[in-house]
Design a protein that fits this description.
There is one protein chain. The chain starts with a helix and ends in a 5-residue tail after the last strand. A hairpin with a 3-residue loop joins β5 and β6. α11 runs antiparallel to α12 and α19 packs antiparallel against α20. 66% of the residues lie in helices and 4% in strands. The protein is mainly alpha-helical and 599 residues long. About 2% of the residues have low confidence.
Amino acid sequence: MTQRRTLLDLVLTVGFLAVATAIAVAHRSPPSGYESSIYTGTPTLTWVAFGLALAVAVGVTIGTRGWYQAGGIALGGLAVTSIVSLPVIRNYHFQGMGDSLTHLGWVRDFVQGTMQPHELFYPGLHAVATTLHLGGGVSMERALLIAVVLLFVPFVVFVPLIARDISGTGAAAGFAAIASWMVLPINNVATHMGPHTNSNALFVVPVALFATVALVSRRSDLERLPLGISPFTVCLFLAGIGLLLVHPQQMINVVVFLGALAGVQFLAKRRYDDHPMVHHPSLFAPAVMLGVLFVVWAAANARFRRAFSGLVYGLFSRDIGTGSTVGQRSGSLTELGGSLLELFAIMFLVAAVLGAIAALFILATWLGRTSLDPDGRSYVTYFALALVPLGGMFVVYFLGTPTMAFRQVGFIYVVLTILSGIALAHLFGWLAGPLTTPGANALAAVFVAACLVLTLVTLFTSPLIYQPTQHVTEQQQFGYDTALETRADERLYAGFGYGINRYGDAHYGTEAGSEINYDGGAGGAVLVEEFEDGNYREAYHGADYYFTVSAYDKARELEVYDELHHSEAALEGIEREPYVDRLISSEEFTMFSVEGTPS
């Protein structure tokens, strides 16, 4: 026994030293310019060290119990959090296009005083970043990246705690912890690892789910605050407020989850006289309380009203769902030598497999084929039946605004991460019979290790999934800032497949620059056919325009898309035209002034 403990101490020490080595090597290897893939840009030694740490974490988490298992869970959580933190560790200036730049603009609004936090529908992430900027003296860009990491941590902490509360076993806690390291809620379709509040809120959801399970499972006569209030009710309320401030869509999902559980409790009390659900405290009041809080917050917000109107419009528009978009993307992938099936396998295979395992586990639980006690079966039933209204919301979103549907999938996979962890514990526990415990543990380690590799290689966007890493270099942002500051005569901007509007948000502030017209409402990108034909005058509807192109644009259009839309020849040809002047030029950003068609 002493030798085994000494060996485990040594193994865990090696694991934590591996994480420290990975972080140190990554920190000493900052990017020298734009990186189209954070995976290839990060030193190989860093990935080897992270792989060693995760291998140790998986082995110890599956093969031990008690404090050593806790050490394995802590090691794996630290390793995955460090991977999530790579943009911070490697000193990325910023990470994230699109919404991320708009969120950076809101942070700038808060700092400048253009907007107060209560004026924004979901100010949580931005308020944390503003505090880090003003209190810690770091740049706004870096503060926002650090805030993303801080909001990620609850996910790897609370998922195993929930599984432990539901099943009462260390095995379920361990497998749930490993499932959390796969970060299944991120799908890179509508949820992303970076400053993206809807995605960031997903990682806070387990706090609310833990408070819910604890509220139901703990004895009310032993844990009470003054006035007879359960501390877990307070925790649930605070978690709900946190979710409301980070992103209300995930908060309303928690309300639906609680409402579903309250409905199940109501039906159980009408049907059974002696069932664990009959003795559980009702979740009706917390559901109503958080629902009212959401309604009060949302009713006065114009952004919510616009989003709701868009959903309703989408439901009644003729082009229902994503059929046309899927068809276009399928054709584009074929031209690039890929396929939707291949992309699905890369991005969703692990999620689909674990979802199927969770579904079979739910069925086995209802058939009485698991070792869960009556309380444990009740909790699995709660979670399973809550997926019904959550799935219904997915269908509504899919018919109205498909992007919201894939965000809904993110929340569903928070729930499935917990259930799949418990399911894996039962599956490999059952296999210990015919295979022996060491054999089942070895098989489990190989299986989850393969899942970890497949999921972590798609945690960030990269050319592997036909999306370059959204790395914003300092030189690139400086180029856009200069372009915005030197604008003359309200001339429009047109980009090389990507417009300047979001950089305008980041530069001026999203609210401060809301009245600025950057692209004349024409999309903000040059017209592909005209540009490729060399008709640069007509490439932006015949208007005079500034043509902007960044290293990110070149990587996306020329390398990842392999000149599917834009060619290098057309990009080089614009410099030879007499009506084109180069105004800004650097390795990361170039801007030309192009005269449109003479009137």
